[in-house]
Amino acid sequence: MKTLGETLKEARDRINLILRKVSAEVDIDQSLISKFEKNERKPTKEQLIRLADFYNLSHKDLIISWYSDKIAEDLKYTESTTEILKVAEEKINYYKTQNNGK
């Protein structure tokens, strides 16, 4: 299992580019990309999509990784994480049914 940062770093290493070149191509500050790769910062969804397009990575896979990293970070020191995630899933399904009725 990889973090979003590890995935982004591997993608950059795979095409053998330095941060400066990626930064120029995707119009994201080089220091920010470095922090994304080190898991010190999370990209915005817009930045994530630009990086996915540049690295030719799946939008869906990166967005799943992005959200799961955020959730894992929030819950890593919390007890009952499995129960919390189950209830959250139930709430999401409830909200979707409520929105479908509108």
TrEMBL record:
Q: Which SUPFAM superfamilies match?
A: lambda repressor-like DNA-binding domains
Looking at the record, the residues that make up the HTH cro/C1-type domain are 8-62
In alphabetical order, the GO MF annotations are: DNA binding
Per the UniProt record, one Pfam family is: HTH_3
Q: What is the name attached to this protein's record?
A: Helix-turn-helix
Q: What is the lineage of its organism?
A: Bacteria, Pseudomonadati, Bacteroidota, Flavobacteriia, Flavobacteriales
